[in-house]
Structures are given as C-alpha cells and as structure tokens.
Amino acid sequence: PKGVVNLITCSRNELTDLLSHPDIRGISFVGSTSVGLKIYSTGAAAGKRVQALTEAKNHSLILRDAALDWSARRIINSAFGCAGQRCMALPVVVVEECIADEFVGLLKKYAQQLKMGPAYEETTQLGPLVSAGQKKFVIDMINKGVEEGATLVLDGRDAVVEGCEKGYFVGPTIFDHVKKDMVIGDQEIFGPVVCVKRVKDFEEGIAVMNANEFANGSSIFTRSGYYSREFARRTDGGMVGINVGIPVPLAFFPFSGHKRSFFGDLHCLGRDGLKFYTQTKSVTTKWVSPEEAGEQDKVSTWEGTINREL
Fold this sequence. Notes:
The chain is an alpha/beta fold.
C-alpha cells in the first residue's frame, strides 16, 4: 500500500535530523564500519533502536586433512563470486604450512579458469566492479599488497574484457605469504582479491583469524569432527561454516556478525529480526467473582445493560 515504503535521498546533514527525529523509532543500516558506528552512536543516544551491519574480513581455515581440490573449488566460488563485492565473500584463506604450496597452486589454477565478462552474459563467472572509483580502490589495495611484501601469485590489475574495454574489470588476484598487520590481510577490499595466510597448525590458525577486528563470518575445511566442533565453539565469527565457504544462514536464523562487523543487540533476520520490529507489551489482569466482590446487584444491572445493548 501507498506509504509502506518511502525512499528519501539526502546529505549527511538531513541524515542527522532523521537519526534524532522523534517519529523514527528504529534504524537499520548496512555499510562501512565508520559510518555504521556514527549512526549507531547518534541513533542510540537519541533513544532509537539501531542495528548497523558493517564491514567484514571473513577468514577460512584449511587444515591438512581437508579434501584440497574439493575445498579449493568452493573457495574460488566464495571468493570471486559477485567479483568479491559482498559482505560474506571469502577474501582470506588461512592454510596449514604443510599443504600451502599445493593449495595455492590449486587456487591459482581454478582462478585462471574463471570467465570474465558482463553480468548479462550467462557464461560470465566474474563480472565487473560496481564503479570506476571501486576499481581504482581495489587496484590501489593490490599495489599496497605488493609494497607490503606479500607474494603476488596472480595479478588481475591489467584485466581487459573484449568488447568491454572501458568496463570496471579487475581479474582474480591471489596474494600468498600475507603476514600480520599487512593492510590487505586485515582491511576489507570488496573486490576479487584473495589473501593466503600460512600457519603451522589449528591453534595458530584460529588465533590469526580471531585477531582480526571484524567477525562477520568464518569457516573451516576439514574432515575432523573434533576440529570442526572446536572451531565452531572458539571462532569469533558470528556465522560459522563447516566445509562451507559462505555460511549465510537460512532466513529463520539471524545474520549474526560480531565485533566491528555489527553494532546493536538485535541482528536482522530470524527471531532477532522480528524482535527488532516488535514492541513488547506485558498485561497483568485479575478477575473477581461477584460473590468475592459482594456486588451482585451491580453485576445484575451491568448484565441487563449489556443484554439491552446487544
């Protein structure tokens, strides 16, 4: 019906008015962490209910007992689908050192097989970035990774699609030997770039993953029930995958990012989503019989009035 959804475009000045307006009771936001934190702080200070879904740097842990070829194919889809432009993309792969060379080789092999092209072509597997500005940002981040000393295994900076030479394409890009505090391994790139971090075992792997400031999603690839249970229990990621690259839950579960990937106390989707748009009311009642009240005559008068009105 008319008025159920209204679209208002505005500058940040009008946004501040919306965040504090007395008629607005709830605010739901998806975007960058810096803006999300500002919206959460301003809205909550004005007494609003706020859910702010913000940035991510999802990690996956590959253990030595994983089915490597099978896992690599799924990580390719998770990392490069939508050209990496989704909050549940998989841009970081943490791999046990003893299998890292083989696994990186598989990633490169399958990444090179992806067909780039416009999204309207059914055979396209890797489309363009959303804008010229985003393309520049992604390429700048790749340059940053090179400067930081990471090993550039596959370079997508000079990708060109025939017939779409002016398109905003960046080819699949893979960095290996990404170390602690490298920007490319810690900050969201939002493009087709995968960073490989090498670790000696499960314990170091989960420590590396949990050291990141974001905690939207995380996953593990293993055949071990023990490590899968330990991972699910100990990972900071709010959405957890076991042999699943993108652990987006079904809609009846909450989209439950944590740390600097979310601000608020009620997530979207699932019961949290319903509660966010629901105001709870508690009603306490007690009924007294006519005999207890000692008002039989008055009760009879009420009944007579009710009968006449009916």
